[in-house]
Design goal:
The chain is of the alpha+beta class. The chain has two domains: 10-90; 92-244. It has seven helices and four strands; from the N terminus they run H-H-H-H-H-H-H-E-E-E-E. The protein has helices at residues 18-29, 41-58, 67-111, 115-120, 131-139, 146-160, 162-169, and strands spanning 174-180, 189-194, 209-222, 231-244. Strand 1 and strand 2 form a beta hairpin.
């Protein structure tokens, strides 16, 4: 019996580059950049590792393989990075446009004197209840009619806020900036408007620049005009704070 022997040419064998494997892992992990802007660092690091891996496997006389793996890692990191930037940039433009429109609509109803609707733009608690209101409520329960009396109180208090008076006195708003402000509330936008047009108003104490903070949330609401009950997802923008600019 003759045994066949097979000889392997060990000179043709090249181990795969560790950097190439890491670049592929980092490229796949770059999908996390779609979750949060903080994670944009992942595709940036992945690009760096992929370039290093390509150089490691492309140098003349290199004993390592894996250039194709490194190229895949580079493609993934660049693809997810660009997609993440595009998505967040688009969402930012949309949010700022909607915040601008919300402020414009709020200003119009304030100018029209429709304070019920103006109050509807505001988040609960935008006007803090003072001690006088709380004392009156405790001493005379019949004088206040629950939620309705609180709403009327807050509407009156809203009209007295200097920034609101400035908005009511101004015919046209000039938008100065719209910026993200996570200090006030995560995901909130701070809209700065110039109301200097109303500087000729008799009340000299009203501010000339007003800052308005807004946030938004999505909620399910019944569809109007449908014969069968159905819910639709609606995005609601609310004014959570309004103050004169510092």
């Amino acid at each position: 019996m003759v045994a066949d022997t097979v000889e392997y040419d060990t000179d043709d064998y090249r181990p795969i580059s560790t950097l190439a494997v890491l670049s592929l892992i980092a490229g796949c992990s770059s999908v996390l950049a779609l979750i949060n802007q903080i994670l944009w660092v992942i595709p940036l690091l992945a690009v760096g590792v992929s370039i290093a891996a390509i150089r490691d496997t492309s140098v003349q006389g290199s004993q390592k393989s894996g250039r194709g793996v490194a190229l895949i890692g580079l493609a993934l990191s660049v693809g997810f990075g660009v997609q993440s930037f595009t998505v967040f940039s688009g969402n930012t433009l949309i949010d700022r446009s909607r915040a601008r429109e919300t402020v414009s609509r709020w200003h119009r109803v304030i100018r029209a004197g429709d304070w019920d609707m103006a109050y509807g733009f505001c988040a609960p608690g935008i006007v803090p209840l003072d001690e006088t209101y709380l004392e009156d409520r405790n001493h005379d329960e019949h004088h206040h009619d629950g939620a309705d009396s609180r709403k009327q109180y807050e509407i009156k208090a809203l009209q007295k806020i200097p920034a609101i008076r400035a908005l009511a006195a101004c015919n046209q708003l000039m938008f100065s900036s719209i910026e993200t402000d996570n200090r006030q509330s995560p995901g909130s936008l701070r809209v700065t408007v110039d109301v200097s047009e109303c500087k000729q108003h008799s009340e000299n104490r009203i501010p000339l620049v007003v800052e308005i903070w807004l946030n938004h949330k999505t909620q399910n609401e019944p569809q109007i005009g449908k014969s069968t009950p159905a819910l639709q997802t609606v995005e609601r923008w609310q004014v959570i704070r309004v103050d004169p600019a510092e």
